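anyone seen this seq b4? input:
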Amino acid sequence: MSIARADRLAERSPAARATIRELLASGLRSYSFEFFPPKTEDGDRQLWQALRELEPLHPTFVSVTYGAGGSTRDHTVSITERIASETTLTAVGHLTAVDHSVAELRRVVGQYADAGIRNVLALRGDPPGDPQAHWVAHPEGLAYAADLVRLVRDAGDFCVGVAAFPEKHPRSPDFEKCRAGADFAITQMFFRAEDYLRLRDRVVAAGCDIPILPGIMPVTNVAQIERFAVLSGAAFPAPIAERLRAVGDDPAAVRAIGVEVAAELCERLLAEGAPGLHFITLNRSTSSREIYQQLGLADRQ
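predicted toks r here
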């Protein structure tokens, strides 16, 4: 390990050095941010600017998603490794089964381990091209997210997270991911606290009481959020949609309403005992930082 990397790791608090499993088991809440791998140099600069702006908030972790169909695997892994080595942030490695052989998956897990990354988010992933299309496993790969959880657990001492779907994923009728050894879950975006609370109740009733972090996406663009809602199957409540469409030509007004709505949802979730919040940033820090600071989350770390 380089002296510079050792110094950066030393700057982290004991909570930041713990796995997410250990942190949540201690009773501390997790506050985290999600990014995606950019496609251009400008996008890359925007990503790293957002990361640097969020770093002083000392989030529990940050993560970088795979592109559609696992298309950005190498880029995602390299960004995650760089976060782990060049910042004080705790990086969670994304891993999807889609279009990957078991050998390729094991190689990625090994890369994360070599970078000192102990937390991995194991996802089956959406089909390439059309997220709603029929899912077909790689001929030398895995068919289910539960199999991917087992692969990561067998590879070493990892804390493994999985995806959760408050409005019920049509392809995930059971709780096999939990039974396979998942330590925590992160939901897709949603707008109604009741959907999260019902999911939590279903998980407890099934005997798989793992912490579920709510995925929060502050609205900054009406057309974009409507498209995401359709792709993910998330309900976009009419009262919120109407407020946003009424100011759709005013980006500042849209962002202000988006922050207000997301902050209210966060307050309700925390009051109901959610173990933390996971902000889907779309590689921009402003809205997420405003909510984070408005709720006084930095003071609760």
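DSSP finds 13 helices and eight strands in the chain. The first helix runs from residue 3 to 11. kinda curious what u guys think
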